[in-house]
Design brief:
The protein is mainly α. The chain has one domain. It contains two helices and no strands. The protein is elongated and about 55 Å long.
Length: about 60
Amino acid sequence: MSEIQELLEKHDKFSEDIENQLLEDMALAVFGANARARIGLNFEETMRICMLIFQGATGVEYSDR
């Protein structure tokens, strides 16, 4: 039984890692598109805001550059 629990824990951790990587990649895509169009915020702010929004936050506020 402990082997099954261990496998499930590894699977949960792996799934969480994939989700985090996917969110980060999507935020990088947003930053890249903004940078190419010469719009948007700096890297850190773009990543922070995207991660909040992708995780379901509402009412996220920011200041234009």
